[in-house]
Design brief:
single chain, 775 residues, alpha/beta, Chitobiase, domain 2, TIM Barrel, Immunoglobulin-like, 8-stranded parallel barrel, 7-stranded mixed β-sheet, 18 helices, GH29D-like_dom, Hex-like_dom2, beta-N-acetylhexosaminidase, signal, beta-N-acetylhexosaminidase activity
């Protein structure tokens, strides 16, 4: 049984898919009663189940040490608005023994023995007691509410248990970029409400970037009058709006205060980000005097000039801005960006070059460090601290800075080595929620690589490269949603859900209590129902773990499943993506495939609210082993012929006159690129197959490359062949056209010539080895 290699980098993915093919029955038979975590996300530190249930009714009394506590007031409002329960909350006498009281007791008595933000929730048939202080009490309430059924009823039966819980990390964050696309105050509040209910405690508000300045600064009104609006722009292949229309918006200072209070009432700290020195186009459109002039007679910078010039005038401006920002945000941290600063404008600035000489700075990286250190010193003087993206490490790290490691883990690891606090939020580990949620082309247009739910869930922010002493500098983790490709609230919600659930468990739960199978196949069910009840959009999980795959064999049995309560699964056998008018799944589907024939199964999940998963595709092929060819020359390498020309398809190489031919010891066209900006090349020879079995072949680029084994073309959709041990003919076609010069921060890239193979019984995709190639 063979699976598409790039989708099976982990053994567990294969196991899940294998089970989906062979087992009968619906989704996991476990219920919340069977679930050791009682359906709670993030999974608590400790749960001891009891016997019986507590019945919560409109007559249930609620008592609190302090009925005016903001966590208690939040609960009262929640019960009124969401459960239609108008329950008065009475004063609780903490001198009484809580165990003898009836109803729900909210108390801080004993909370001083709990870890920071910790709580203890005890449910007996007689009463519910939540012990916690401040955020701890709030999180205990959130856990209790997750035990309620989603539907409103006259009574609610809650399972008896004792839950003792506290977070793994003190910093648990979610970032929302409102510069690329603007979101209103109610829309922002809905995100904050959601992350608070899953025990995240930080909302990183990316208010400023090149595409828009979103915060009112009274001393500099043009920042919003000019910088908050732009002509509609195109990001990559995603054209959201006509370019002729103005787009924008900003938040007044009163609106900012309202959001900060709203978040604080839910124990969410709001960290503002004011980008510098780069990503400053919006500010520089409004106040171009803070931009560097180029050296007289020199060409304008090749990179876009989006850098503040480090003049005293600029620093005065930024300090004025930061004073107003700090007046609005009580957060200990102020995020100052510091990322992706192309230094060309500084290299061409006479002022910057003179400043570097005056300050003894050896290069522009040290000039950036000087810039960041100046800002940090000012912010520290106001009793605050800075956070910066990991580029602030360039040229030397500011003395008290916290590093947000985004390019990968390396920046965070280096900062921890230097004993600086670190927030791990790498784009390489599933923390970037603007990335695709699968490799399927059916996903809505997003950014760059793809980050699956499983990848987000399995990330551990504490690198094994750190010593135990250095590990304490990893203070938390964060998910980021950049919004170049997020023009609507529905897209925003689709991108973050259900990945926020996974993030919350990474940030809160100890690794020993994590279990992806339990999380994805058991606990997520109720939380999807909660999202539906909130009319919150989300990505619907597919009916099969593997979205697009090819299997080889004569007989298959498929059991489809959906974790979304009440969802229906539809399938087709005719190569068309299913609709709700197609066959509805009601039990295992069996395929017996004649020799040399193919069958295709496509599936789609449709929820009761009408949300749809992307369609899965499984190609089944019953083909015998292709016999080896008679080859005895035993000469390693490949023959190749190439032609200098501009080709638009590898097919054109079949009739192009070759310019030259030679022997190559490996499949590699890099040498030809050095002197030829446009060419095509065809490699011919034999590949040595070491054992009978079905082999998966993939290419780095299917537009520029074609692969043939024994005359059969391997494509992105049909990539597997059963091959007998021995030699088989191989042909590879490749065209290359040099990319245009880079523009700004965008660097065009052309995929190299690469052929990968996954051997039978192996789950690792490897580049085709030169030692296996012959001519």
């Amino acid at each position: 049984m063979i699976f598409k290699p790039y989708q099976l980098t982990k053994l567990i993915a294969f196991i899940s898919f294998f089970i989906s093919l062979t087992q009968t029955g619906k989704a996991s038979a476990q219920t919340n009663t069977d679930d050791p975590h009682l359906g709670i996300i993030p999974a608590p530190a400790s749960i001891t189940k009891g016997s019986g249930t507590f019945t919560f009714t409109p007559l249930t009394s609620i008592k609190a040490d302090n009925p005016k506590d903001k966590a208690v007031l939040w609960l009262k409002e929640y019960l009124q608005e969401n459960r239609h329960l108008n329950i008065k909350i009475a004063k609780y006498n903490s001198k009484l023994k809580a165990a003898k009281s009836k109803g729900l007791i909210l108390t801080s008595k004993g909370a001083n023995k709990l870890p920071n933000e910790g709580y203890k929730l005890t449910i007996t048939p007689r009463n519910i007691i939540i012990v916690g202080k401040d955020a701890g009490l709030f999180y205990g309430i959130q856990t209790l509410l997750q035990l309620f059924p989603v539907e409103n009823t006259a009574t609610y039966k809650l399972p008896c248990a004792v839950i003792e819980d506290s977070p793994r990390f003190g910093y648990r964050g979610m970032m929302l970029d409102v510069s690329r696309h603007f979101f209103t105050i109610p829309q922002v509040k809905k995100v904050i409400e959601l992350i608070a209910s899953y025990k995240l405690n930080t909302f990183h508000w990316h208010l400023v970037d090149g595409q828009g300045w979103r915060i009112e600064i009274k001393k500099y009104p043009k920042l919003t009058q000019v910088g908050a609006f732009r002509q509609q722009t195109m990001f990559g292949s995603n054209r959201d709006w006509p370019d002729s229309l103005s787009y924008g918006g900003f938040y007044t200072q009163e609106q900012i205060k309202d959001v900060v209070k709203f978040a604080a009432d839910r124990y969410i700290n709001v960290i503002p980000e004011i980008e510098m020195p780069a990503h400053s186009e919006a500010a520089l459109r409004a106040y171009p005097e803070f931009k560097c002039d180029t050296v007289a007679g020199q060409k304008a910078p090749r990179d876009i000039n989006n850098l503040y010039c480090p003049t005293e005038q600029t620093f005065t401006f930024l300090q004025d801005v930061l004073i107003e920002v700090m007046d609005l945000f009580p957060s200990k941290y102020i995020h100052i960006g510091g990322d992706e600063a192309g230094k060309e404008p500084w290299k061409q600035s006479a002022f910057c070059q003179a400043l570097m000489k005056e300050k003894g700075l050896k290069d522009e990286k040290e000039l950036q460090s000087y810039f960041i250190s100046r800002i940090e010193k000012f912010i520290n003087s106001k009793g605050r601290s800075i956070i910066g993206w990991d580029e602030i490490l360039e040229g030397g790290l500011a003395p008290n800075a916290t590093v947000m490691s985004w390019q990968g883990e390396e920046g965070g690891i280096n900062a921890a080595h230097q004993k600086h606090n670190v927030i791990m939020t790498p784009q390489t580990t599933g923390n970037y929620f603007d990335h695709y949620q699968s490799s399927s082309p059916q996903e809505p247009v997003s950014f760059g690589r793809y980050a699956t739910l499983e990848e987000t869930y399995n990330y551990d922010p504490v690198s094994k490269q750190l010593t135990p002493d250095e590990q304490k500098y990893i203070i938390g983790t964060q998910g980021n949603l950049w919004t170049e490709y997020v023009p609507t609230v529905a897209k925003l919600q689709y991108q973050i859900m259900p990945r926020v659930f996974a993030l919350s468990e990474v940030a809160w739960t100890q690794p020993a209590n994590k279990d992806y199978t339990n999380f994805s196949e058991v606990r997520l069910a109720k939380h999807f129902a909660r999202l539906d009840a909130m009319n919150y959009n989300y990505r619907v999980p597919t009916a099969l773990t593997t979205i697009d795959t090819m299997v080889v064999g004569p007989h298959f049995v498929y059991t489809l499943k959906s974790v979304v309560p009440g969802a229906k699964i539809y399938y087709t056998l005719n190569g068309r993506d299913p609709l709700d008018t197609d066959l509805q799944y009601d039990g295992p589907i069996t395929f017996s495939i004649p020799q040399n024939e193919k069958r295709e199964l496509r599936t789609r999940v449709i929820t009761p609210s009408g949300r749809r998963s992307i369609a899965t595709r499984t190609l089944m092929y019953n083909k015998a082993l292709i016999p080896a060819v008679n080859y005895t020359a035993n000469q390693q390498g490949l023959k190749y012929k190439w032609a200098k020309n501009t080709f638009t398809s590898p097919d054109q190489l079949s009739y192009a006159a070759p310019q030259d031919s030679a022997i190559s010891n490996k499949l590699d066209a890099e040498a030809l690129k050095k002197d030829n900006p446009n060419f095509g090349v065809v490699y011919d020879g034999y590949v040595n197959i070491l054992a009978d079995g079905t082999y998966n072949f993939t290419l780095a680029n299917y537009v520029a490359s074609q692969l043939f084994i024994d005359g059969v073309q391997l494509t992105e959709a049909e990539y597997a062949l059963p091959l007998a041990k021995g030699f088989h003919q191989i042909k590879v076609k490749y065209i290359y056209n040099a990319p245009p010069p880079p523009t700004g921060r965008y660097r065009p890239r052309v995929a190299p010539l690469k052929v990968y193979v996954t051997a039978p019984g192996n789950f690792e995709k490897k580049e085709l080895a030169a030692a296996d190639l012959y001519y």
